[in-house]
Amino acid sequence: MYGAICAAFLIISSSPMSGSLEIDQNLARRLVLEGATLVFLDVPRGTEFGIDMKSWNTGEKFRGVKMIPPGFHYVYYNAVDSEGDTAPRIGFVHNFKKSEFLVKKWDSAIEDISSAEVSFEELSRIREDLLNLDRFLGPYPFDVWKRWKDLTSKVTDNLVSRIIPQSGQIRSALELISCDYKPSSGDAPAQKRRSRPITEEEREEHLLPQLKPAPGTELRFIEFPERNFPEGSTPAEITHHSLDSTYVLETMVAKYARPVDIVGELQFAFVCFLVGQSLEAFEHWKRLVGLLCSCDDAVSKRREVYDEFLSALEAQLVEIPEDFLVDIVASNNFVYHSLRSLFRTLQLNEIVDGRLKSKAKRFQDRLTAKFMWDFTGLEQEEDDEAPVVVKT
What we know:
This protein is α+β, with helices and mostly antiparallel strands.
């Protein structure tokens, strides 16, 4: 057994997937024994393949990945045609168990993973030939492991099973189908009818094809409530709930097994965007960030949620370019303005404990150092929508 471990460890330095990666020998030996293995057969040469935050273009000898640390991992691929054009990204999330052996096969007819189950006999045969197969398996990219763990620290089995599409695959480009109803050129749907005539823009919109995601292909994120205030609220209460989104947050938190699961959903949405290139997930992530930053009452009631939210958001902002945080239409940085609001609330709320305030202050300082965002004068309301830049 020790000889097999040493042989597998030596392969790391010569693997085309590993580059100049160096790994602690004790960790390598442990993961040869305890790490999971993903065997991916018949993948065409040149296919873009990745796991978590590293991707490669496969060669002729590629057969999969070994030494995968137990836990959640995001496996993805982009088919590449003979002209070098890359298809939209497709991926799946899998919670690898200790020493798990997972086999997937490529179906060239559909340029995707085969939907056919690998038989027990074939699985056993492949596993028995693992020593010969080993040299065709690239080691997991350990230089991204810690960052990946930070990005998925609150993601659970229950969350993943609820959110992932029923098809099991996460697609960067949703498959859209036509709705049954298509309005005529002179009509508008009943819910759109108004006392005034519809505008030309509205008429043109009604003429566009009515599309929706194909059943089973969309991410099933938790839905925001239709109203941001309780039924029967007075005008004064409606105004209060418009300024403080605690009611919306509490309504959503009640749908999770644990309140902190909302941070897990935030993390999962982020990696579906960062790794899976899903704009649908990015929009949901933005809405969750905006929600969590606009709750005055909840910051003291939900201390654990906000403690984990600050940690999660800090790990995420390390991975995303600042350009992605700027709203193209409004030309402002929505994360900066959302955080100014949250930091203001934390600073002025006398009930919030000192440790959470200190953590927020350290986060502010690191954001200022990284992006040159200015969080001074939090006690004052913002008039300017553009981020304030520190002069150096």
